[in-house]
Hints:
The chain is globular, with a radius of gyration of 26 Å. It is an alpha/beta fold and 442 residues long. The strands form three sheets. The chain has an eight-stranded mixed β-sheet, sandwiched between helices. It has a two-stranded antiparallel ribbon with strand order 1-2. It has helices spanning 2-7, 75-81, 119-132, 153-156, 167-193, 218-226, 247-253, 291-301, 328-331, 340-347, 355-359, 363-375, 391-415; strands at 24-25, 30-31, 59-61, 69-71, 141-143, 207-212, 233-237, 257-260, 280-289, 308-315, 419-424, 435-440. It is 32% helix and 13% strand.
Amino acid sequence: SSGINAEYGGAHMNTVADTKCAHIVARKKRQCRLQPLRGSEYCAEHVTAHVTGDADTERLPCPLDPKHFVLRSKLPQHLKICNATKFDYTGEVYYSADVNVIQYAGTKPVKHPLSRVPLAQQIDVIRTLLKYGCQSNVAPMYTQEPVQEHDLEPYKSLYHKPNEIGSDATKHAKQQVALVKSSREFLQGEEKKDEKEEKEEGVFLDTCFVELGAGTGRMSQWFHVLDTERKNFFVLVDRQICRNKADSYFKKNSSNYTRLKMDIKDIDIFAIPEIASYGKVCVACKHLCGAATDLALVSASRADRKPTNVAIALCCHHLCNWEMYCGKEHFYRYFSPEQFYVLTALSSWATCFKIEELRTADQGFIDNQVIGFLDNPDAFVQATGYLELDRTFKWHIGRCAKMLLNDGRAAFMKKYGFRLQFTQYVDVVISPENVALFCCNY
């Protein structure tokens, strides 16, 4: 309703007697008590029930999704940007239904709330996680140097009033900068391992960037800011249309970009025609939630002989889906499919606490808790039959769950010839989901 009020200039109270909506609620046999919109006798809820015929005030249900309404005068414009708009890509060479979904023939586990999982099964999963630990067993883990103020200067120049950037925008900018820096440093490190000289023009020369789950496209925008030669191409993929897109920036500064409104599960990124003209591909994703991360990794694994690197910030492991999870082979070494959703539920413990609590967490205390649970888990069970765990200990368990799921993904990419590393690319204060996976096959 706030959006509707904004279109009408806001709901205002004239006098106490005039504040009621003129609509009569038949079921309650009384007048509606909500505030009317400015310029109307009716509130945002009932204005659509009283058609006036005026294109500037008449609201119609959206033809694509009748759950929301739009002014009749703005309907043509709305249909171009509505999230319910469907684009038909079935005839395109890069469309292939479910191409990035790994087919699974086994029995699908059932997802239950953690409260409905038997206590013995919870304890069994937690014990295995604590033995596994919260450090990767598949790839090295690095920590990125904190982003400095001067690193944000290119970002500030993108805004009309750079001195008025809010803390939330700065938080996202630091994550984007850190991902770009970490990706570049990873590729530079891999070149040194191969005893190759780093090219003066940088490791991202002659690259087609594919941002999956692009949203507003800020990650691509950052890579473009660093592309001083303006020779790279950018493909933004998302199944929804987002407001405040970076597309206006690309239209103004570069013609080498395209946006595809597609589901990641249906796109063969290496069949996109523009990619053929570039020597390398960079698949970039910032906080691609749950199963979408697995779809992105599967799509990148189809690189064959095309030099490809991946930069993906991992998050929302509680949204992982067993059918789409690409790390099953690694997962089977520790758990059964029936335990998968217990693990994903436990992973949420890593992000549901205040940062201040984690800052003051005593690692020695956590270590003692781990030892105590492994020795005698029954000591952590309440008389009511539920586990009683310290908050920081639960945070540690959640991190172990995330790491095991991430290691499964890393093992999957390693199987396809990718070299990889994990990086804590920002401090946990900026984002509790602060682990990224970087891969390359050249």
